[in-house]
Design a protein that fits this description.
about 60% helix
Length: about 120
């Protein structure tokens, strides 16, 4: 009887701890890849529009970084595509910060020539 009680207690403990262990790191590329890939038309009618807006804002903000030279005719939506593709192609890095990964993606896609941009 003690063994069964101990096993039940162990099972309950594991079941209660699982959600904590599975919680997503909300700064990682893993988390934001999922959030940023949502369809913006559907998000307009849901609470997920904040997350998409955050993704959009991060990418837009990084486009002024001194190491990134995005041509003026490139819309931010295309920059978002570049970042999402980078995350798809580099799954081994997605545990890192989304901001860092977005910076790496944009730097790779839109590098500045020597002296092209300085701050």
């Amino acid at each position: 009887m003690k063994t069964i009680t101990a096993l039940i207690a162990l099972a309950v403990g594991i079941a209660l701890a699982t959600p904590v262990l599975a919680e997503d790191d909300q700064t990682s590329g893993n988390y934001w890849l999922h959030e940023c890939k949502k369809d913006p038309k559907q998000l307009a009618q849901s609470s997920g529009s904040f997350q998409y807006g955050w993704c959009f804002g991060v990418v837009y903000g990084l486009s002024i970084h001194p190491l990134i030279c995005v041509p003026t005719q490139v819309p931010v939506v295309q920059e978002m595509d570049v970042v999402l593709k980078y995350l798809d192609v580099h799954p081994e890095t997605r545990h890192k910060s989304f901001r860092l990964l977005a910076l790496e993606a944009l730097k790779e896609a839109f590098p500045c020539a020597d002296g092209e941009k300085s701050k």
